[in-house]
């Protein structure tokens, strides 16, 4: 059980770290893109997956998975404290470099401007983009721009809601994600989701066999 006092402290941490988010473009060019996603198995195990693709043809260059323990429950607005460590762990296993990271979660489109994509981007100090399948409560879309708390904090691209994570401008985020979508979500994230989900299912099967 997480206390309100602890949540207040974590909210303050997010607010302070959000000051480190860079909304300007730090990308010279984009040749490779990594996508990450986290799936969940039994007994609070998290299966994180990372997939690097070529930006031009979207072919897979490298993929990795990592199984970690979860110590923080799901609480809206605090996803970074639940999933960031798992994502960072799998990213560190990658042997190839990549130019930008696409995260299944919001960036600055967040009550304290520090969603999961910003959390990971700032901690690793890498360009990152947030992509969410659902619009954050209180936000509105007009002419594909996402307005939240009096600011334009994102853009709708196809069926997803895109926001700056770190070191990428919103315009560049939109351009990159537009080129990555084959289906409903950007290809690197879709591939990472499939990999994480299948790995989690296999983990459940292996655990079930142990008890038979």
TrEMBL record:
Its cofactor is Mg(2+). Its main location: cytoplasm. It holds the Pfam family Endonuclease_5. It catalyses: Endonucleolytic cleavage at apurinic or apyrimidinic sites to products with a 5'-phosphate. One of its GO terms (cellular component) is cytoplasm. Gene3D superfamilies: archaeoglobus fulgidus dsm 4304 superfamily. Keywords: Cytoplasm, DNA damage, DNA repair, Endonuclease, Hydrolase, Magnesium, Metal-binding, Nuclease. GO terms for molecular function: deoxyribonuclease V activity; magnesium ion binding; RNA endonuclease activity producing 5'-phosphomonoesters, hydrolytic mechanism; single-stranded RNA binding. The keyword tRNA processing does not apply. The record marks 74 as: Interaction with target DNA. It is found in: Cytoplasm. GO terms for biological process: DNA repair. It is an enzyme of class 3 (hydrolase). Its EC number is 3.1.21.7. Mg(2+) binds at residues 37, 104. Transmembrane segments: none annotated. PANTHER family: ENDONUCLEASE V. Belongs to the endonuclease V family. DNA repair enzyme involved in the repair of deaminated bases. Selectively cleaves double-stranded DNA at the second phosphodiester bond 3' to a deoxyinosine leaving behind the intact lesion on the nicked DNA. This is Endonuclease V. It comes from Methanothermus fervidus (strain ATCC 43054 / DSM 2088 / JCM 10308 / V24 S). The gene is nfi.
């Amino acid at each position: 059980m997480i206390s309100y006092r602890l949540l207040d402290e974590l909210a303050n941490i997010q607010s302070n770290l959000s000051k480190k988010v860079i909304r300007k473009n730090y990308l010279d060019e984009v040749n490779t893109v990594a996508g990450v996603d986290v799936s969940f198995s039994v007994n609070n195990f998290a299966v994180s997956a990372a997939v690097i693709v070529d930006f031009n043809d979207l072919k897979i260059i490298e993929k990795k998975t990592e199984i970690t323990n979860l110590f923080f429950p799901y609480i809206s607005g605090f996803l970074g404290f639940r999933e960031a460590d798992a994502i960072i762990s799998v990213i560190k296993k990658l042997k190839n470099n990549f130019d930008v990271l696409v995260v299944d979660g919001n960036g600055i489109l967040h009550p304290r401007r520090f969603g999961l994509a910003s959390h990971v981007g700032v901690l690793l100090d890498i360009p990152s983009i947030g992509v969410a399948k659902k619009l954050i409560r209180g936000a509105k879309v007009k002419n594909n721009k996402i307005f939240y708390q009096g600011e334009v904090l994102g853009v709708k691209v196809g069926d997803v809601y895109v926001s700056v994570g770190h070191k990428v401008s919103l315009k560049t985020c939109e351009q990159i994600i537009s080129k990555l979508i084959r289906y409903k979500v950007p290809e690197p994230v879709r591939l990472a989701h499939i990999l994480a989900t299948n790995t989690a299912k296999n983990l459940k099967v292996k655990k079930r066999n142990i008890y038979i």
